[in-house]
Amino acid sequence: MQTNTKILLSYTVIMIIGSYSFYVVRNYNFENRKYYMKKRQEEKKRLYKMTQHNENWMRDLPLFLKLKPLTHLFIPGSHQSFSDLLNKKLPIATDVPKFLRFVDSPWARKTIERWGRCQELHVTDQLRFGIRYFDVRVAFLPGECEQSLDIFLLHGLYGRPIKEVLDEIYTFISDHPEEILILDINHFYNFNDELHRKFLGQLEHLFNGKFIPAPPSLSLNQVTVNFAQQHGFQLLLFYQQKLAEQFSFTWPSSYIASPWPNTNNVQHLWQYTENILTCRDQILPKGGFFVTQCILTPTWWNIVRHFKESLRTVMATKTTEQAVSWLKKNSILLMPFLNIVIVDFVELFDFCTTVIQLNFQRRNVAMEGDASGSDSGGEESEIKLPGKVGKKRLAKLRAKEERKQAREAEEEERALKRQIEEERAEKRRKREEEEEEKERQKELEEKRRLEEEKRKEQEEYEKLKQGFTVEEQGCDVDINEDTDNLLKEFVEYIQKAKVVSMEELAGQFQMRSIDVIDRLKSLLADGMLTGVIDDRGKFIFVTEDEMKAIVTFVKQRGRVSVDDLVDYSNKLINMDPQDVTLQCS
Question: What do the Gene Ontology cellular component annotations say (predicted)?
Answer without folding.
Answer: endoplasmic reticulum membrane
